[in-house]
Each structure stands twice: as structure tokens, then as C-alpha cells.
Amino acid sequence: MLKILIVDDEPDVELMFKQQFRKQIKSGEVELHFAFSAPDAIAYMGTLNPFDLVMLLSDINMPGMTGLQLLEETKKVYPHLRVVMITAYGNPNYISESQRLGADGYLTKPVDFNELKQRILELN
Amino acid sequence: MKKIVLLFTLVIITKATYCQLQGQKKVDSLIAVLKTTKQDTTKVNVLNDLAYQFRGNNPDTAIYFAGEALALATKLNNETGIIYSYLIMGIANKNLGNYEAGLKISLEALKLCDQQLVSEKAIDKSKILNLKAGAYNNLGNINEEQGNYSEALKSNIAALKVRIEIDDKLGIASSYNNIGNIYGDLGNYAEALKNFFAALKIKEEAGDKKSIANSYNNIGSTYYNQGQYKQALEYHLIALKIRKENGDKSGIASSYNNIGIIYDDEANYAEALKYHLASLEIMKEINDPQGIALSYNNIGLVYMHQNDNEKALEYFLDYLKISEEIEDVTSTADAYINTGSIYAKLKKNSVAAVYLNKGLLLSKEVGNPEIIKAAYLSLAKIDSAQGNYKQALEHFKLYTVYHDSIFNDENNKILIQSQMQYEFDKKESLANAEQKKKDAVALNQKRIRNYTITFLGVLIFAVAIIAFILFRNNKHKQKMNMLLQRKNEKVETTLAELKSTQSQLIQQEKLASLGALTAGIAHEIKNPLNFVNNFSELSTELVDEFLETTDEKERKEIGADLKLNLQKINEHGKRADSIVKNMLAHSRTGSSEKQLTDINKLCNEYLNLAFHGKRASNPGFNCEMIKQFDNNLPQINCVTQDISRVILNLIGNAFDAVRQREIEGESEGVAYHPTVTVITKSVIPNQSAHIGTSSHHHIIISVKDNGKGIPSHIKEKIFEPFFTTKAAGQGTGLGLSLSNDIVKAHGGEINVTTEANNGSEFVITLPL
Questions:
Q1: For all residues of chain B together, what is the average pLDDT?
Q2: DSSP-derived secondary structure for B195-243
Q3: CA B289 to chain CA mean position, Å
Q4: How many CB pairs under 8 A join A and B?
Q5: CA distances from B313 to B3, B164, B346 (A)
Q6: Which residues are bridge partners to A53 per DSSP?
Q7: Does the distance separating the beta carbons of A110 and B527 come in below 8 Å?
Q8: B534-562 core/surface letters (b: 16 or more CB in 10 A; e: else)
């Protein structure tokens, strides 16, 4: 069971992921959790067994604490956790900054869900 | 301007005298009676009496009560009641500056009087005649205020005739007084004095102390207008003495006022101030706002003459405030002009021009030629001071037009005709007519000469010098002409170029701010488009699944999901659409229609947009945004996209400020939390601080940042066009300047407070 945390301030992201992964959710391969802000994500992660979560998918542009800041914080506390940034901006600054902070991937919206699914299932 | 003050004083005193002293007591007793009487003619009279009490200080209330009286009198067929209510409405409308209405109503009253006089019914003839005289009196007063002096004279003479017929001694005196006033307006002081003395004689016979004092006052004022300050002072002091004996507070205040003016003219400023301040104190005590306004004006004038411009400005602004509060359009116009003149003296010529033009506009509304004259004169002086001699000449020409329209030969002829109507003075009239003609013409010439010399000095001098030089040397003249011509053309083309450059830059600024928005908007649009794409892809897959499976339960599930997806697609499609609409609205030029706008929503939207915009170009940018919106914020009638631009500009600047501080702080390793706060508040002040927006219900929008603050030497420049602290190409320097213009155009203002290392706050004030 792959536990994945998705962080995005857009509420419809949850619906979209749930539909995209409906087969995998049904079959129990994947368990999705959603947080709508970086602080919420950090709080949620604090309630879990550190090794339960395998992947964090985070939007970069969020009001308040940004995805990049979340990336930095997460890598400090959970260095093993894979963090993939998702963003609408294909900004070279963002890409280099994410790399510098140790992101394990960088996806631009619209997300290619097939590729994402592949990536995730590879973790198994 | 001073003359006007005096004349107003004369008029006001009669009003104030009645209203203030008997004022409140009378009103209270009338209202008490009102509550108890039945719907009969007594009630009509009480309503009219009440209206009469309010005619000076509260003309709107007077009109209300007179209207009630009229309605009831009409029902009861009470003709005298109807006519009396018309009379009061005529006076009240005059006091509101609604001259046309006042004239119409008074003419109607006149008509009704004549109808009554020829009717078969048994009527109290003397009562009707009394009302008829009152109607003529109204017409006379209204025409006088409009500057139609010949009409005014005719009406007052008609009133006089009627009053002689019914032997209304006090009415006769009053008419003499009015006629004297008009002659005073026309500058015919000899006739004015004659009439005032005639009025005085009758009043002394009647023994009405207050009235006698008024006559002495008018005589004193006439001597003053002739420049005979010694006599003027003498008579004003007599008036003052009688008024003090009588305990006539408002009369005392008026005398203090007039004496103050004389001392002001004699440049005895200390005494002038003493008297004016004493007058002000009493006016405040008896709560006569028109008197207070006058005092403020006079004190302002004294300070102006002493060249204490700051103090003068203070008082003129107070004058303006009160005049606006009591809705006295003529005083308001006068106040605008005086304030404008002071600003000109303080070298704030653009502000001065705004005030003067406003004053001019108002005075044209009212149609009071004295004030229009004064406005044009002041404008001419400003133009002259600024070196705009062409414009100065234009304004001065307009001044002389108004001046002449009051004094022209046509009027003189009519004047002479009116005089001949004096039944009991025909011989003298004929002799006077001739003398008057000579006097008027001589006076006319003298006046024009005086004004030309005094106020066109520089212009004439300059023109004379050039003419002299040209006259002496023809070739030189031609050469100079050519040079001037070429220079003019060059200046004009340069001006045209500058104007076109300016509009280009403004367009650039608009585009620049649009560009800043675009990044934020791109982000905003990408999101909903993502959803549309994703959900539609998903839906296609779901349809495939639906077609593959035969399981009823699963089909139901898929069907539900499909429906949900389609709804989401619709939702996000609409979202993208509205964002594009907003963007178009922002970029559209020229649409300047006002509409009710939700400022809170605007602030919220643009705060988000600006944030995303800044983020797009500065990935590391982060800022805490605090919103404190007033839930009860009323909607504002404004040009939405213009105000949006202003808000966007201020917020953008705030973000820049905190970003700047953040960057500078990084090298020092100091912890810094960039914060931008946007506050909206609805303000209903109960104390008045300044004129303009702050004294009425308004809203404020505050954009605060905790950046480094604005250094004081920069603070005074930030609203200047093209002034920017950003690197070349980073900012047009037009943002704040345009924002300021927009807010001003809505009748509001932008104020900035700043503190080093604490940040800045920009507050927009917008009236409702």
C-alpha cells in the first residue's frame, strides 16, 4: 500500500487524483491523502509513522508557505521521503531551486497522469 | 469681495435679527400651537409663521412648512394664506440660490394678489395690498442678487408705491432701504444715501430702535463704499451704540463686522482683527452660521492683507466649509475664490486654479455677476503671475464684460426711466437724471481706468514697452515679430510633442501594469484549463469503462462520476472565462462609466492577482497578506477598472517595498517577515476636520507594508509624474501619479504616512 500525500490549494485537485487513481485506490494499491496548505501537510505528516508515507506531491504556488519551503522542511525531517513538485509555472528558477532543495521530480501542469502513475508504481 | 461682504451683512442682519433673537422661542411657541389647532385658517397662519421663522437659516425647512400651509390653504380656499405661503417660498428659494424658482413663485403671488383685488368677493384690501408689496419686494431682492439692478429697482419702486398707498410706514422705510441698497450696488452712492436717510427719517418717527440702527448701519456702509472712512466709522459707531443699548446681539456682531472692515481698509489690522474676532464670537454665540461664515471670510481677508497667507488660508477654508454646510451657493463661490487667491499667493498655482475655477463655476450657476467678476479678476492675476499673459488678457476681458454689463449705458437709460416714476419727486428726478448720467459715465470711466491701471499694470506695461520699441524701429519690429513667430511655432510643436509623449507613456504604464497582471492571470487561467483538460480526458476513459462493463452497480457509479466531471468542466470553463473578461476590462481604454462597485471584492481579487504576478517574476517571493475588510462597507459608485488599477498599483508598490527590504536583509541574515496589510473601512465622521471628503460619509482603503519606509525627501515627490526610485526600465514612474489623478477624479484623495524601518501606509479616501 503506497501512501501518498498531495498538497495543493485547489480543492478540485483531490477529485481529479481520486478519479485518475480510482482503479488503484479500489485495488488497494494506493492510498491518497490530501492537504490544502503546506502547514496542514506538515501537521498531517507529524501524525504518521515516518516511514509510512512514500511520496509527497506538492504544488509550488500556494498562499502563505510555498511548496519550495515545504520541500525544504520535509527534506530536513524526512530525508527518505520522495518529494515531487507540481506547478503551473515552467519557470527555470523554480526548476533549479527545486533541484537545489533536493526534489525528486518536477512536473508541470497539466499533469501527465500516465507518467505519474508509472513513477508511483515503480516505487513498489 | 469686500463690498459683497458688506451688502450681505446688510441683508443678513435683517434676516438674522428676526430669526436669531426671537428665533427659537418663537419657533417653539408656534410648534406648540401647531399641535393643538384644527385644520383651519389659524393653522395655515401658524404654518406660514413657522416657515417665515426658518426662511433665513433653514430655507429648506421654510419651504416645507410653507408647502404644508399652501396645501391646507388651498383646501380651505384661503387666498391670503396661499399668497403668503408663496411669498415665503419665494424668499426661501432666493436664500437657497434658486433664483428662477423664487421669481416664478413671487410672480405667481403677484398675479393672485391682482386677481383678488379685482374679484367680487369681500376682501381685506389692505391685507392683499400688503402681500402684493411683499411680492414686489421679493422680486426686487431676487433681481438684486442676480445683478439685474434695473429690474430690482423697478420692483422695489412698485413695492414702495403700494406701501405708500396703504400707508405702511415700516414697509415704506424698508423699500427705501432696498432701493438704497441697489443704488449702492450700482455705485450711485449719492442716491443710495438719499434713500437711506429717507428710510431713517421714517424709522425715527416710528421709534423702532432696531430698525433705526439698521439705517445708520446702511448709511455707514454707503460712506464706506465711497471711501469716506471717517463718516463711515462715525455712523457705524452710532449704529453700534444703539444696538448695544438694545441688546441686539446680532446687530452688534454686524456692526463689529463693518467696523472691522473699515479698519482693515485703513490697514489698522490689529483693530480690524479685534472687531472681527469679537463679531465671530457673538455670531457663534447666537448660532448664526451665515454670520460665522462672513466673519471667517473677513478675518481671512485681514490676514491676507497682512500677507499672513497661512492664517488666511485657515480662515478661508473655514469660510468654505460653513458656506457649503449651509448651502449658501454665493458664499461658497466667494469662499472658493478667496481660497484660490490665497493658494495663488502661496505659489500653489495649480491648486489655486482648481479653487478659482470651482468658484467661477458656482458663481455662474448662481449668476451673481459680482462674484463672477471677482473670479475672473483673480484668475487674471494668477495668469499674470505665472506669465501666461495671453490667458491673463482673456480672463481680464471677461472680467470687464461682466463689469460693463452692470454699468452699461443701456442700464443707465432704464435707470433714468425708473426714476421718473417717482410720483412725488418728478422735478428732482429730471434734474437727477441728468446728473446721474454724467456721474455714471464719469464713474464708469474712472472705474475702468482704475482697474486697468491697478490690475493690468504688468500686462499694459509690457505691451507698452514692446509697442514703444516697435514704434521706434520698424525693421526691429519686423525682426522681432518673425522671431517671436518662430519661437511660438517651436513652442507649440514642442508642446504637441510633449503631449503625445505623455499620452504614450501613460499608455505604456497601462500596458506595464497589464503586463504585471498577465503573469498572475496566466497562472489563474492555467489552473481551470488544466481541470477542463483533465476531467474531459478522465471522462473519456470513464465512458470506455462504462461501455465495457455490464455490472449495473458499477455503471451507476461511473455514471455519477461522469456527471460530476462534466459539472466540474463547466465550472472551470466559466472560471477561465471570467478571468479573461476581467483582464479585458482592465485593458480596455476609454470606458469610463461609473458603476456600483464592491471594493472588498476588488481588493481581494487584486491582492491575489498582484501576489501571483510578483511570484511569477520572483519565485522566492513570499509575503504574508493580512486582510481586514469592513463587512459593512457600502458599494462605491466609481469607474471600476480605474479604481482597480489604483488598488493594484498600491499593492504592487507594497510588495516591491517588502521585497526590497527582504533582499537587503538577506545579506545581513536578519529575520524579516514581509507583511502587506489591506484594510477597508466605512467612515461616518461626527466631527468635521477638513472640507472635501473627510466631512462626509466616505470609505478608506489602506495598503500597509512593513518595508523600509520612504525617506522624507522622496516622500514629497512620489506622486509626481515620471518620478521613480526603480532602476531604468523597471518602472515608468507614472503609477502613483495616475492613481492620484484617478482618486482625485472621484473626489477622493491618497495620503501616505511612512516611518523609517517600519514601513509605509497608503490610504485612499473615497466619498460615497
A1: 82
A2: HHHHHHHHHHHHT-HHHHHHHHHHHHHHHHHTT-HHHHHHHHHHHHHHH
A3: 17
A4: 55
A5: 20, 48, 9
A6: A3
A7: no
A8: bbebbbeebeebbeeeeeeeeeebbeebb
Please report residues of A whose CB lies closer than 8 A to that of B608: 63
Identify all chain A residues contacting B530, using CB atoms and an 8 Å cutoff. Answer: 88, 109-111
pLDDT in tens, B503-526: 776 677 766 666 655 666 676 677
Q: Could you tell me what percentage of chain B is helix, strand and coil, using 3-state DSSP and rounding each to the nearest 5?
A: 75, 5, 15
Rounded CA gap, A23 and A30, in Å? Answer: 9
Length of chain B in residues, anyone? 768
| Contact between chains at B568 and A12 (C-beta distance less than 8 A) | yes
Alpha helices in B77-208 (DSSP H): 79-95, 99-118, 125-146, 149-165, 169-186, 189-206
Residues found in chain A = 124
Is B526 within 8 Å of A97 when comparing Cβ atoms?
Answer: no
Which grid cell is B548?
Answer: 465495457
B534: nearest CB among A16, A68, A93:
A16
Contact B523 A61 (CB under 8 A): yes
Question: Once rounded to an integer, what is the mean pLDDT over residues B631-643?
Answer: 88
Cβ contact A110–B523 (<8 Å): no
- Provide the 8-state DSSP code for B635: P
The answer, as to whether pTM is greater than 0.80, is no
Of B523, B534, B564, the CB nearest to A88: B523
Residue located via cell numbers 452710532:
B238
Provide the grid cell at B378: 483673480
Parallel/antiparallel/unpaired status of strands A30-35 and B595-597: unpaired
Q: What residues contact B667, with CB distance under 8 A and at least 6 apart?
A: none
